[in-house]
Every structure is written in C-alpha cells, then in structure tokens.
Amino acid sequence: MGGAREATGSGFADASSGPGVAGWSRPHLLGCAGLSADELRSILTRAERYEPIATMDAPRGEDDRHAQHAACEVLRGRTVVNLFFEDSTRTRVSFALAARRLGAQVVDLTLAGSSLSKGETLIDTAKNIEAMGASAFVVRAGTSGSPAMLARAIDRPVINAGDGSHEHPTQALLDIFTLTAAIDRRGAYDLAGLTVAIVGDVVSSRVARSNAAAMTALGADVVLVGPPALAPGSLTHLAHEGSPGRVRVAHDFDAVLGEADAVMMLRMQFERHKSPAIASAREYRLGYGLTAARASRLRERAVVMHPGPMNRGFEIDSEVADGARSLVMRQAAAGVAVRMAVLEACVGASERAHG
Amino acid sequence: MERILITGGRVIDPASGLDGVADVAIAGGRVAAVGRGLDRSAAGRVIEAEGRIVCPGLIDPHVHLREPGQTHKEDIASGTRAAIAGGFTTVCCMPNTNPAIDTPEMVLLLQHAIARTARSRVFVVGAATQGRQGERLAEIGLLAQAGAVAISDDGDAVPTSGVMNRALAACSAAGLVFMQHCQDATLTGSAPMHAGEVAQRLGVAGWAREAEEIIAERDVRLVRKHAGARYHVQHISSAGTIEIIRRARADGLAVTGEASPHHLILTHEACAAHSPDGGGWFGDPMAKMNPPLRERADVEALRDGVADGTITILATDHAPHAGDEKGLPFEEAPFGIIGLETALALYAEALVGSGRIGWGRLIELMTAEPARLCGLDRLGLGSLAVGSAGDVTIIDPELSWTVSAADLKGKSRNTPFLGRAMIGKPVGTIVGGRVMLDPASGELADEAALAGVVAV
Lengths: 355, 456
Fold this sequence. Notes:
Chain A is an alpha/beta fold. Chain A has helices at residues 37-54, 62-72, 90-101, 122-131, 146-153, 169-182, 206-217, 253-257, 281-288, 292-295, 318-321, 328-353; strands spanning 79-84, 105-110, 136-141, 158-163, 195-199, 221-225, 247-250, 262-265, 303-305. Chain A has a five-stranded parallel sheet. In chain B, 28% of the residues lie in helices and 23% in strands.
C-alpha cells in the first residue's frame, strides 16, 4: 500500500516559484486521451507526496502539523470553484478537500438543473464567477465535451470532473494510483504486462474511457467487457495512437476472469440510456455481475475496483465489494491526493503561462 | 428593365444541350437570344464574360429560410441574399418553420412575405403531415393548388408506413414529389453524430447508417405500388442508401437522391476537436448535422453515385443557426450548417476536381435536374432557351478565394468551412433580368424588393 510516507522537505512548493508540477505544462485537465505516460507519471508522483496528509483527519504531532502548513502554502490565496451541473458526492467532496488542503478557498456549487434551467449557459455561469475572481474551475457536466468548450471560453484552468460519457480523468488517475499501490508498481508507474478488465455499462462510462486511455498509455492491456449493446466493438479505438497497451472488447465475462489482474466494475447508468439497454436486472447480473462465485474464479492476487456509487447486488455483490480483494475504499481515499496534485499542476501551469 | 447582353462566356445550358462560347441576351426579364456575335448596340448593359461560365440561374431545392418563427437565425431577405451571393436564383424552402407550412393558408402567407422581401425566387415546400407530427396527413392537394412545389416533413421522417403510404398516394395525385428526410428515430434517438470510432472517442451516442437506409428501403417498397409517385431522398449520407436508390432507378421507379456539399467533402473526423492544452476530445458543433457526416467510403460512394447518374440532385440543406446556439456543447447544439455561399466551390472540388464529372454535368445537376424535380422547368426555370426566365449565373471557375465570416451575406455563420481555401465562385447573378450580384462591382444589388419580377 502507499502507506504513510514522510512529507519530503520543508514544503511542497517553493514559495518564490509558486505552484507547479515538474513535467506538466497544461493549464487544463480535460481528458486522459492524448496525455503522455510521462505526464501521467508526473501527476501520480506528486500525488505520492501529498498522500500522507491528503486524508489526515487530525494532525498527530509536530511533523504532521508542519506538513499540513506546508501544503497549505501551495494554493494559498487562490479560489477553486467547483461547478457541478450533475449530482456527485465523492468527486465533489474529494475536490473540495483537495483544494482546502492546498490552502485554497473553495466555492462549491451544485447546479444540477438550477442555473441552466433558468436559461443561463454553462459558459455564462462560469464567466460570471470568473469575473468575481476564480483561480480554477472544477467542472462536472452532463454533456460530453462541455468542460473543453468552457476551457476555450474562459481564461482559467478547467479540470474535468466528469463530462457525460466522455472522460473522468481524475478518476482514472486515482484508479491507477490505487492499483499501483496494491500491486507494488508505484514509482515507475509501469503497467506493462497487466490486464485490466473494465466491466459493465462501458458505452456510457466516462470512467472506462479515461482509464482505457491512461492505462494503455502506461502499458496495460485493457479488456472492455459487457453485452454488445453496452460494449460495442468500436470501443477498441479508445487506446491512444502509439500507446504501448491495447484495448479489446469481450462479451464473455467468464472467459476474461482468469486472465485479469484487476477487475473494474462499472455502475449501470440507467439514466443515460434512451431506451432500456438490457432486458432485465437478473439477466444482466447473470452475465456480467461480479458475484461471489465469479470472484472466486479470479486470479489469486487479482484486485477488484469500482468507481462508485455501487449498485450492490446488481453489478457487484456486497461480499465482493467489501471483501479482501476490494480496493473500493482505497480508491475513495486516493482521490484527495491525486486531485491535490492535479490542482497544483494545472494552476501552476496556468500561472506560469500568464507570467 | 434594360436589355442585358452577356458576351463571350462559355455558355452551358444542359436543358438545351448547349456548351460553347456564345452571347446571351436578356430582355423583358426573359432570355431573348443565345448565339455568337449578338448585337451589342441594343443592349443597355454589356457584361463581358470571357473565361467565365454562363449558365441558367442555379437552383437549390433544399434550404431553410427560418421564416416564420426563427428569424433570429435567418429570414427570407437574408437567406435569399446568401442565395444570390452563392449564385442561386431559385431556392425551395423547407416547411419546418414555426408554425410549420402545413396548410394552403400558410403557403399563401409565406408567398406574400416572399413577394415583399425575397432577393431570389423562392418556392415553398409543404409539410406532409399536420404540424409535421407524422400522424395526420396535411391537405397535400390544397398545398399543391396553393403553389407548393414539393412535399416534405424534412427534419423528421414520416415515421410510420401507414402514414407514408397515404402521403405517397396524395403526392402522386397532386403531381408533387415527396422529399424524405430518412431517419428512423427509434434507432437514432437524439444521437449527435455518426455511430463509429469518433463518437466512441467523444463519448456521445451514434446515429447509424441503417437508420437512414431502413426508411429509404421502406419507402421504395411503397413507391412500387403507387403509379406515378415520385420519391426523393434528401441529403444522403450513407453508401447503402445510394445502393437502394440505384436499384430502384434500375427498376424504373421515379426515385431520386440528393447530395449535400458537406457530405461530399467531410467525414465524421471533422466532429472531433482535440483539446491541445488539456487532453481529451470534444465535439465541434460546427460539424454537427443531420444526417451526420460519415466515413471516407461514404464520401467516395456519394461522389461515385453522382458520377454514375444515381444521384441527380445537389442541394445545400442550408440550415442557419445563431452563434449562441452553435456555441452550446456538442450534444446540445442544433443540427445543421449554412451552405448557399460555399456550395458551388465545394461541389466543384468534390466532383469536378476529383474527375468524377465535368462542369457541364455539374451545371445540369444545379439547374435542369432540380427544375424537373420540383416542376420548375414548366415555369421556364433551369434553362436558357429563348423565352425562358432571365435567370443567369456567371461563374469564374478559376477564382481562388477564402471563406470568411465577414464576407457571408446571410444572418448566420455556422459553417465548418470558415477559413477554407476555395476555387471557383459565382461572380454574377441575374434574376428575371435584374442584376442582383453585379459582376463588375462584386456587390449585391440594393435592397429593392423583387416583387413582381420573381412572380412567375
């Protein structure tokens, strides 16, 4: 596991040079598609440094206090705005905690249906808040690509916290952060030789798209598993050109069980289906649920992941979700450290670009 | 009205089988003479056209002028200004306005507005069903009597076989062509683009080819039982649809197909914009249209279909939308792009430049063929035969230019071709003997209405 490491040095950011992550120069994080393995590693490496304090409930001693204070210098004086046009619990809280632990002020807005229903566009909403003074926007939206459109329209970093069925890049980063700790691949973050099965409602899943792009860039092979309606063959193109890993599609979950080093179960996103994509819950569960029986046929050291929220008893049995193989709670914990790294990286790149 | 003489151009008039250097004289709003060495002394105005193509005024049988109801996007005045700038002397406007053009009274109201404000000729296409709801038939016979030149629920297909069966019967009786927007909505939902790898990358739903082909196939089956029915597939996007039309035509059915400039040029790759400073992809609303841009093989099949005579109609599907609307995220932005001012050069690039057809056939596809489709040939449109309407387009086939938002004459700027280098441009447009785009100045005529001139 990542474990509690010592925070290095006296602080995380050199106060004179401001925030920033070596090897990262993009002002936005809109998706994992197109990010290089080195860029991904630069975020993950910085997240490692934040991990000891990321989920600290209270300081226990002078060292903890010192580390917290140092982190609070990184984005001191900045304001991070959470703009959530879709419901979210863990992602929103995780970003808010990450920003606060870096010393930023946080404006946390859940606008599901409210502002847009008054006829104000997402871009107008963001521009108004930008005019009041915002250092970065964390955006969740129901439509694919809207954070990218926002990034073109405003002058501040935009971090995609999930857009439609497109991408959820910080989720992929935290998934990799969690997985590499569990299988002892931290440091190099090299996933070569690993097979990761991503199972379920792949076609609706931004988590699957971001993970497919990021994991293959780091060398893993990704198998997207689901019934043909939810895992069509055209998904094999999700690996970025030049990535060392491959993406393939499979419809027989049982045939994949024995070769997976990690199984990531996806939530069935009924709300994104225009018409019912599956005949019934029981038929789906029979083919694609991670039941206790299926989990018992996994490789000995294989791990089980789920981005949440889980439909217990549907895509995953509780005894698997809460079992020894499960990384679900560690995924939630990892989110804070990863998002601290992302916020620092993007705000830093943006501030350097603006001189 | 002064007598106009256009001298020394390459006169292409497919309806008369003419292609050669000649002069064209227009008097009294009609073609007075075509021949070599026509008398210059009688002309009030002489237009030198050496090196240029002189042809019947171009006809676009598929545009959206947005009047009534959505005049913030376009109106009859602005849309026909764009038509004139693009060399079109005649356009046929689709009835998906608000309210829809689904009664003879609505046709008459629209014709009244056209008579007051149009710069080109405008003919009205009537709706097939009441309110374009696809349920109860519109009064197709009365629409025809009021002057509708075709019937269509464009924007949507007539969804059920039963209603379509009755619509074809009514169109057959009224002598009008039925123009279908082929889309099985139960397959596509509101999917914003072609079902393929680009849609998967963008994380958006896909609109598969079958949704177009199924409707075309169904309709061709129905056309077989209606003697005299004429059926037209609008804006074909899929190679499979071309095959359906090819077979129907081989069987002698009065089935035609239409290609739009964007489908002849672009693929679904145009929908994918990369986010250079943040990773990920996003959809470009400027490339969002319905039916969607597809793959290279479909583009090639469309060009081949034009070359082998399967596709006989070219139409822009000019679909203006305001900047705010096209500025929405991909899935929320409306479908459609403008086309009137860029069409000719794009057709020339896709069809003449690729060696599929020559200028002669291209002009035929933009004049005589659409005139026949909509019965406009009976009004003397689409031809330079003596006595025909004095509608002439003068084209510089070699002119290099760049599409610029500032130069566009319509109200909207929603086109993915902004900044594109083009070759070939209409430089003169004459409607009913009136110079609307002046080949000497390059300017549009002042805003004087064409009332009385365009009423044919």
